[in-house]
User: Which sequence fits this backbone?
């Protein structure tokens, strides 16, 4: 896995299905997760079989934005946008933090990292997503994947 | 405060701890389970701990970090730890994070208990 942290903004990813902000409060994390997941399921972009991985990936990304990006400051919102372009969906999460560097993420190939108690979230997300890229130096994360539920004629986005 | 979703049975030197919760994503649940398991390690010297994970459907990297901390504490106390009954859909999580390289997994908790009995420390 190679972690990509770019300087610019993420490229467009189709039409907007959801654009909302939540305060950086972990007690609101579940609401954010449920709202985003509901949009992806409602548009048949993610299949029921993938619910577990979707929840795990969203949880990791939202917690990272709230706790690490915004340092748990409830006055700093986390913006979440769900977009889709044909058979590809994107969830883009933006925090107000300064981003991070590759050096701050443990190297999965380093045996020393096996016993670390942190740094596994990115590995978990990379396992299921087709794309996991950070923009604005790490303050924006773009998660993308191909549609995994059978498309319905009414789901054109 | 004891963890209200951890069912503990101790026989001989083997402690079986069943996690009766599907979601281990929120900080309160993670802290509660972590404290509950750590108390077992403090209470049982050289513990043979088997965690029955059969009810778990979701767990975050924060919870995985707590399991690593628990593993290190048990190792330092010259005990051992195994996890049984992980749902097949969840096993890739342990593989991609390479926890399967440090923690022993069994298809079910009963097999882990049997193995610990067969090979006492």
Assistant:
């Amino acid at each position: 896995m190679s972690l990509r942290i770019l300087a610019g903004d993420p490229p467009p990813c189709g039409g907007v299905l959801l654009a909302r902000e939540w305060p950086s409060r972990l007690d609101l994390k579940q609401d954010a997760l449920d709202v985003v997941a509901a949009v992806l399921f409602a548009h048949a972009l993610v299949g029921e079989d993938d619910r577990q991985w979707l929840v795990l990936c969203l949880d990791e990304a939202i917690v990272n934005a709230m706790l690490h990006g915004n340092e748990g400051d409830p006055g700093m919102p986390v913006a979440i946008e769900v977009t889709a372009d044909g058979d590809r969906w994107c969830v883009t999460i933006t925090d107000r933090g300064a981003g991070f560097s590759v050096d701050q993420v443990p190297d999965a190939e380093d045996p020393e990292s096996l016993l670390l108690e942190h740094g596994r979230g990115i590995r978990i997300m990379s396992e299921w997503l087709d794309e996991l890229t950070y923009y604005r130096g790490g303050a924006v994360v773009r998660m993308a994947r191909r549609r995994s539920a059978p498309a319905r004629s009414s789901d054109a986005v | 405060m004891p963890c209200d979703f951890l069912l503990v049975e101790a026989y001989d030197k083997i402690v079986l701890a069943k996690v009766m919760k599907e979601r281990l994503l929120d900080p309160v649940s993670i802290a509660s389970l972590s404290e509950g398991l750590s108390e077992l390690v403090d209470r049982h010297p050289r513990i043979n701990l088997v965690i029955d994970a059969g009810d778990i459907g979701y767990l975050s990297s924060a919870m995985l970090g707590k399991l690593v901390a628990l593993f290190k504490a048990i190792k330092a106390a010259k005990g051992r730890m195994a996890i049984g009954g992980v749902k097949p859909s969840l096993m890739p999580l342990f593989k991609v994070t390479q926890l399967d390289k440090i923690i022993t997994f069994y298809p079910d908790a009963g097999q882990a208990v049997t193995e610990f009995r067969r090979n006492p420390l």
